[in-house]
Structures are given as C-alpha cells and as structure tokens.
Design brief:
Blueprint (H helix, E strand, L loop, with lengths): L3 E5 L2 E5 L23 E6 L4 E4 L9 E10 L5 E5 L12 E5 L2 E7 L5 E7 L8 E9 L2 E6 L2 E2 L4 E2 L13 E2 L2 E3 L2 E3 L3 E10 L5 H7 L16 E5 L15 E4 L6 E3 L7 E6 L7 E6 L2 E9 L5 E8 L4 E8 L9 E6 L4 E6 L7 E7 L7 E3 L5 E8 L6 E3 L3 E2 L5 E6 L3 E6 L7 E4 L3 E9 L6 E9 L12 E4 L4 E4 L7 E4 L7 E4 L3 E8 L6 E10 L2 E2 L3 E2 L13 E2 L6 E6 L4 E5 L13 E9 L4 E9 L2
Parallel strand pairs: 32-37, 38-43, 45-50
Antiparallel strand pairs: 1-2, 1-18, 3-17, 3-20, 4-14, 4-19, 5-10, 5-17, 6-7, 6-14, 7-8, 8-9, 10-11, 11-12, 11-13, 15-16, 17-18, 21-24, 22-23, 23-26, 24-25, 25-30, 26-29, 27-28, 27-30, 31-33, 33-35, 34-36, 36-37, 39-41, 40-42, 42-43, 44-46, 47-48, 47-49, 49-50
Length: 604
C-alpha cells in the first residue's frame, strides 16, 4: 500500500499502510531476474484525486517539490498542490503541466496565477519524466529530467509558503471542487522543506526512498507519496485523507526509472568521457558507459536488487536513429547481457557475451530514453575439432578449431592459430581460452593412419545346385568399408540364388575397389517317383541322388495321411518291405534349409 507522509511541526502523519517492498529475487536461468514491484498510480483526468488532511506545513521560503510523471495531456493539469484555486489564496504552490510542459505556480492576492511555465521540453509524450520545482528564498526554478528549464528567476512576492490548504495529489481544490485534474500516471511524489541544488536533484531523482520507509531517516521531508497503493479504508476514508473515484486498475507497475543506487553525468554540449556506476559488490560488478551519441546531454544509471541496472538518457534523438552509447560491465564469470524496455516487460537476451578479461565493450545502438539490463551466467561456449579421421600416406591433414567465442588457442604441437596442419598419425589436443571469464576447454582428435582398399576378386563365375549356398567375402583390413549391391555392409555374403553379386570396398585413402561374380543354378537333385521292391536289385528302395552328398531329413505319409517314416538322417534304405500304394514325402536338407515336396508310388 502507498505511504503519504505529512510533517507538521514536530509530528508526522502516516497516510496508508505498508509499502510494497522491492523483491530480492534471484535470476531464473535464461529469463533474467524477476520484475521489480515498484508501483505507480493512474489518474483518469476526470474525477480521480487524493486529498490529505488540512494543516500548517513547516515549509517556509525554501522548498523542493518533485515527481515522476507519465502523460500525454496538453491541457493544464496539476501533479501536487497545496493551495486553493481561488482569489486570495496567495500562499502555497502547485507543480504540474500546461501545454505539455512543466509549470510551478502560486496564486496572487487577486487570484491570478504567478510563477514559472509552461517551459522546458515537452513532457506530454507518453514517456516517464522527472519534474522538480525549487524555491530558494525569492528565486524559483524548474527542472525536467535533471536539467534546468531556465535560470532561477525572482518568484512572486508574498508571504512564506505556509498554508492550511489541503495537500492534493492530481488536482487543485476550490473548496471541495477539484480542477485541473491529472491524466496519466504518477510515482515518487515528494515535498521537501529545503531547496535542493541542481546536483542534489540529479543525484536523487532516480533513487527510491529506502524500503521499508522510516520518516526519521529524512528530516527535511515534509510530504511523500510512494504511489505503491491507495489510502487505507478502500479509498474512501483513509487516516487523515481521502482517495476519490479510483478503481481497481489505478494501481499499476511503474515504468519510472527508479532504483536503489544511482550515478549520473550531465554536460551542456554533449557527453564526453564516461559514467561509472558501482554495483552492490563494488567495482567487481560496475557498469561503465561511454561513447555517447552527439546531442545527448545527460545520462542516469540506476541499480536494483538482483543485479539489475537501468539507463535513463536525457536529450538526443527520441526515435531511431536512437541515442547510442557503449556499455561495459566489469565483473568476473561467464556472462550474457539481458535487456527489457520496462520493469514489467519480459527479459530478452541481447546475444552479447560480456568479455571482462580483455576490455571488451558492447555497443547498444537502440536506446531511446530508458532501458534496464541484467547479467546472468552464459551457456558454456562450444568448441570442437574438424578434420579427416585418417591421414593418407604422403599427404597432410588440416585440423580446425570450431570455437567462435575463442580468444586464444594452443595446440599440442605448439601452434597458436585456430588451425594446424599435421603430417603424421597420432592424437592432437587443443586448449581454447574464452572471453568474459568463461572456462578454458580442452578437446582432442585421434588421427589414424589411412589405408587404401586393395584390389581383390570374388572368385570365378560358378553354378550352384539347388539347395547349395556359396560364401563370398571381401578382403580383410583395418579401416575398410564394404558396400554390397543389396546395401549390406558386411564383409561376407552368402549366395543361394542365381545372379550377379558385386562388392565395393573403400578405404580411408584412395579410390574404392570393386569386384563381381556371376552365379548360375542347375537342378542337381533326382528323387524317384516309382519304386518296385521285388528284390530284383533294381529300383527296390527310395534313393535320393544329388551332386553333393548331404544329410537329408525325411517325412513319409501314406495316402490316408498317416506318418509312415520320420528320420533326421535318411540312409536311402526304405522301400523293400513297403506296402504297395501312393505315398507323400517331405525332404529337408538341414545344412542348407532346402525343402523338396513330392509323391512316390510303390508298385507290387
């Protein structure tokens, strides 16, 4: 919830409940730190405003009023006021915009507006801007984004700025009627009892007041609204104040460039030199900006918890070609840079690997008025070797390191380039060093002695009998590869069918060698279909004749399907006692898998 603080005499009035604290979130791998939770309040320009209880302010002739604003409205509107919009309300003052530019004014004795503005650069452009009005005795001055809109000038004559008019955020009050209502978003609205010099305006504009907030830590603070919430009581009757006509959508994540640490540099004629910003652990994680584009007059660098830092630029181009500068992040480790346009937008990897060991600087040409950055551990850079797997006799081989992020190389041969030429087989190693604190890597490659495929033969053309199997084989040797015409990569192939068989043999060197053989076939098997077991010595038994004697298995069935004989080793001796009739046979050759089916008739 928001805190609105009014310091009267020696007492402080706390308006609202506790602040939303900035989270100390750890980075998520590949996503960057979680978004911060700084809030802003949205005003609709028609009916929304906040009123504090009336009472005397301790401000005198010196004060500072400041706020971050986001608006596109060109009509007169008020950010913070403590005067009535009526004749005779000559005390108090108001900070706001008119014609899209900053104004700081009070009312004269007859009700006329007196003060500064509209003046300075256009702030009604839909981007966040810091407005500050400073009154130092008789002198009044306005600042926009840390730059004076003009010199300090004598302000309107009148009594000190003490007034009992209520302090109002987002409007002027004429009695109970609001006027010049603000249309946009507000954040970090502060009223100080002292006149801040220019250096203090710049030093504190991007700094949030400490969380959790304690009024005792800021003795010169007269009023403060963090815009992290509405007054307690649902926006109708807060402690000592009221919020009028706000809806649930009024509280938003703030896009104002605010952090817990800040550094800045401003120059009237551009920004030479550099801006150094120390991180939470000191110089080990500091940010250095340099190389600014022409026309850039100021830059603010601010830091948040969890290693997030932001950049807010003043002046220069507002649209592409945008303000450019060079960023260097001084820290150890293997890091990549992430960027987001607003505190609540997703992180995007810039693709930059930060090199902190050799002074590598990253140019960021796309920078309008603000952006936030974070660093996180980078994936280890890849490194591997390319080149042949073997070294052919009388030839050299080139080994190349594929390591785009590598900065230094050292081979086991002593070479220091990313490539090396070798002429002997063996194991070669490379040590690659990388930028940004990324660890060095060692990779190796074994280079074998190359071999050429020898001439060879698959033997003469031949003829196979039915059921025979022929073994063909290529030459043996280390590193040889085999390609048969059927796609097989085996050295040996068995042939059982007629045709031409071709083998190509490849080595790591030279051309492949090829050989082929033609295989024919013939029927070398004779099985009788009739036997006459009459003991005349001719055709008395079932005798299987083949060109190559092999063991046969035989199953024999009579005409009714009854098994008459089964044997795994037929000796060609059945039939002399067989009964006449028709028989069916199944011959199998276990050695080759050959199968013959037929019939046999036994005659008396």
């Amino acid at each position: 919830m928001g805190i609105f603080l009014i310091r009267r005499a020696a007492r402080a009035l706390v308006w609202g409940a506790a602040l939303l604290l900035h989270g100390l979130a750890l980075p998520c791998a590949g996503q960057g730190p979680l978004p911060t939770t700084n809030g802003a309040l949205g005003f609709d320009g028609r009916s929304t405003y906040l009123v504090a209880a009336p009472g005397p302010r301790t401000t005198g002739r010196d004060l500072t009023v400041e706020a971050w604003v986001l608006t596109t409205a060109l009509r007169p509107q008020v950010v913070l006021s403590c005067l009535a919009d009526s004749a005779g309300a000559e005390n108090g003052l108001a900070l706001g915009t008119d014609q899209g530019r900053a104004v700081l004014f009070r009312r004269g004795p007859t009700g006329q507006r007196q003060g500064l503005g509209p003046t300075g650069p256009l702030v009604a452009d839909g981007r966040w801007h810091h407005l500050a009005g400073v009154v130092r005795g008789p002198l009044w001055q306005l600042f926009v984004d840390g730059e004076p809109t003009g010199p300090a000038v004598p302000g309107p004559l009148g009594q000190p700025l003490r007034t009992r008019a209520p302090l109002v955020l987002g409007a002027l009050l004429n009695g109970s009627t609001p006027a010049e209502l603000f249309d946009g978003e507000l954040d970090e609205v502060r009223l100080w009892q002292v006149a801040h010099p220019l250096a203090e305006v710049r030093a504190s504009m991007c700094l949030m007041l400490r969380r959790p907030f304690f009024l005792a830590g800021y003795p010169s603070l007269a009023a403060y609204f963090a815009c992290d919430g509405l007054p307690a009581g649902g926006g109708t009757s807060g402690t000592g104040g009221q919020a009028f006509n706000f809806t649930n959508g009024a509280l938003r994540l703030s896009g104002a460039p605010l952090g817990e640490r800040s550094a800045s540099r401003y120059e009237p004629n551009g920004l030479p030199g550099q801006v150094a910003f120390a991180g939470p652990t000191g110089r080990a994680d500091s940010v250095v900006l340099s190389g600014f584009a022409a026309g850039l007059r100021g830059v603010q660098v601010y830091g948040l918890a969890a290693g997030v830092f932001g950049v807010f630029t003043v002046g220069g181009a507002l649209r592409p070609p945008a303000t450019a500068f060079t960023l260097r992040y001084q820290a150890g480790g293997c890091l990549v840079l992430l960027r987001r346009a607003l505190p609540f937008s997703p992180w995007a990897n810039t693709g930059a690997r930060l090199d902190t060991t050799h002074g590598y600087a990253l140019a960021l040409p796309v920078q309008y008025d603000r952006a936030e950055f974070a660093v996180e551990a980078a994936p280890l850079p890849y490194c591997y070797l390319t080149g042949p797997a073997a070294l052919c006799p009388g030839q050299g081989a080139v080994l190349r390191a594929m390591a785009p992020a590598g900065t230094r190389f050292r081979w086991s041969t002593g070479a220091t380039a990313d490539t090396v030429v070798v002429t002997t087989p063996g194991r070669y190693s490379l040590w690659a060093t990388f930028a940004g604190g990324c660890p060095a890597q060692q990779v190796s490659r074994e280079l074998q002695a190359g071999t050429a495929a020898p001439p060879f033969s698959l033997g003469p053309d031949t003829v196979l009998c039915a059921g025979e199997r022929l073994a063909l084989a290529g030459p043996a040797g280390p590193g040889l590869r085999y390609e048969w015409d059927n796609g097989s990569a085996s050295r040996t192939r068995f042939c059982t069918e007629p045709g031409r068989y071709t083998l190509a043999v490849r080595g790591s060197c030279g051309l492949p060698q090829t050989a082929s053989v033609l295989v024919g076939s013939r029927n070398c098997l004779f099985v009788p279909t009739v036997i006459t077991p009459n003991n005349d010595g001719r055709n008395d038994r079932l005798v299987v004749q083949t060109a190559h004697p092999n063991r046969w298995a035989l199953d024999l069935y009579n005409r009714w399907g009854q098994l008459v004989l089964r044997t795994d080793d037929y000796r060609h001796d059945w039939g002399d006692a067989a009964a006449p009739g028709l028989y069916f046979m199944l011959l199998r050759q276990p050695a080759t898998g050959f199968v013959y089916k037929g019939w046999l008739e036994v005659l008396p």
